[in-house]
Structures are given as C-alpha cells and as structure tokens.
Amino acid sequence: MPFSAATGPFEESLWSLRPGCREMESKVSEGGLNVTLTIRLLMHGKEVGSIIGKKGETVKKMREESGARINISEGNCPERIVTITGPTDAIFKAFAMIAYKFEEDITNSMSNSTATSKPPVTLRLVVPASQCGSLIGKGGSKIKEIRESTGAQVQVAGDMLPNSTERAVTISGTPDAIIQCVKQICVVMLESPPKGATIPYRPKPASTPVIFAGGQAYTIQGQYAIPHPDLTKLHQLAMQQTPFTPLGQTTPAFPGLDASPPASTHELTIPNDLIGCIIGRQGTKINEIRQMSGAQIKIANATEGSSERQITITGTPANISLAQYLINARLTSEVTGMGAL
Predict the structure, then answer these.
(1) What's the chain look like in SS3?
(2) pTM of the prediction?
(3) pLDDT tens for each residue of 322-337
C-alpha cells in the first residue's frame, strides 16, 4: 500500500512521535527514523527506459547504491508504475538518483535544441486519495508551506486515477528541491495513514492488435506475434459463414483461408540511424520478423549521400501487413526509449 508504514518494532516509535511533528520531520530528514515506506511513481515509457538503462545497468546501480527495492510494473503500457520500498534514508537516496538522472536527460536533450531555459525535472507520485487532504492542508496551507520551504512546484490532481482510489501528485523543480519536497510529503503521509482500503492504480496496457495471416489469428505482444487458437477458431467459423466467394478465389468450401493470394511487393524507407534496431545484433531482429510474418524482407545497402535505406517486403498481403506491423513496433520501441528493455 503506498506510503504505508511497515508494522514492526518501529511502528510504536513512529506513532509516539505523532504529536511532535517538527521532531519527527527532522528525524525523517536526517534519515534517522528508520521506518520502511513504499512510494509509487507513475512514469512514461521513455522515463522508464532511462531508469532501466542499457541491459538494466542503471536500475541495478540505483538499487545497490540506495539500498532501496525498486520494482517496475510489467506490461506493454504507455505508463508504468515504479515502486520504491525501503527505510526512509534509502528512499531519499533512490529519489535523488532518479531526479539527477532525469536532469541529466534534460541537459542531454537540450544540447541538440535551441531552447535557452532549462525545463524543470518532474516526477509524479501516486498517493491514496484519503491522504491528499492532509497533504493539501486546511485551505491549502500545508501544500503552500511545502512549496515555499522547498522551492518545488507541487500539484495534487483533482480527479482520481482510472479504476482506483489514488491521485497523482506532480512535483517539479530542481533535483534538490524535489528531494526536500519528497521528504516533507513522507512526513505528512506517515502522520496521516490511508483511511480504509486503497484500490491501487494499474495502468492499462495498450490495446492488443489482432492480425490474421495464413488462416491463423495472432495477437501482438511487444515485438512478438503470439498464435491465438480461440480467435483462430472464431475467424475460421466466421469465414465459413461468408455468403460470397472472395475475389480471385474459386473454392467456396473454406473462403479466405486455403486460398493463396498472389505474392505482391511493398517498399518502405527507413532512416539510416534507425535501421540498426530493425536488423538487430547479427541480424537477429530481422530474422525474427521474417519468421513471424512469413514474408521475404530485403534491406538495400546504404547509398552515399542518402540518409535513408530501402526495405522491400515480398509475400501475400497478410504476410506484408504483419511484417510492416512488426517493423513499426521495433521503430516505436526504439523512438519511445523502450528499446533498452
């Protein structure tokens, strides 16, 4: 449960400190109050890719150096939940590392842009709605105090996140301001535990496309086409009920499935700097796409002075559409930063 104090030897000392808020705040700030907390962050795919790093090296380093447990929700979702659990001092170290990593990303992105003002680092916490009142305070007094004392911008969403009893709390500012802000939010959350049961927010996966090829139904999961026997049966039954014969086919017994449409050719152009993600190491990715789609795929050699490469796909219309989808999935994962996964 987000911002929940662990039951154990520290719980009594925690609640005995409740009247002395300032004493508790200084202890939390110094990392002296060793309460185990769980904090949930909502991140976009690109942000998650940055936190994970190549082959998971960045998140591994964060776990080792902070001592906090950092878990990232699974799923082919535009948003992911990053859960950080540990003693308060470990959580603050993990937050500091994430904030500085995001600042580094902003600095790197600005080196190629003409923008002069540096945008702030932004993190989104996911907080039970029952604790948001305490965070805002009477007439907004608490949130105003946090803003003024830390220099960070803090916004509590008015609406709950879909299918949950949680709200997003957005923090923006310099990494140092964000770290101070998170410390103060933790104090408020420890003082005001969630009331009743919390229904946690779970990001919805991107809708799974279904492709029919060679009489089989496939659902696309990540970069893989997974055969789906139930959908295949439905597809075959539907095709058997078809009252007319599809064009170019003379056997109405099993319309649309046993016919072999003539092979056709489709051409794509891909930027040179993205061709590597299509080919993969030693051609592994392009071979996977060939196997899954059943299409022939040829990549033209680089031509001098051209920033693009031509890809020629040959096969049935179904083979070509599946190959195109898989190529686009690879490009999307690269561009959104999920290629690191």
Answers:
(1) CCCCCCCCHHHHHHHHCCCCHHHHHHHHHCCCCCCEEEEEEEEEHHHHHHHHCHHHHHHHHHHHHHCCEEEECCCCCCEEEEEEEEEHHHHHHHHHHHHHHHHHHHHHHHCCCCCCCCCCEEEEEEEEHHHHHHHHCHHHHHHHHHHHHHCCEEEECCCCCCCCCEEEEEEEECHHHHHHHHHHHHHHHHHCCCCCCCCCCCCCCCCCCEEEECCEEEEEECCEEEECHHHHHHHHHHHHCCCCCCCCCCCCCCCCCCCCCCCEEEEEEEEHHHHHHHHCHHHHHHHHHHHHHCCEEEECCCCCCCCEEEEEEEECHHHHHHHHHHHHHHHHHHHCCHHHC
(2) 0.55
(3) 888 888 777 777 766 5
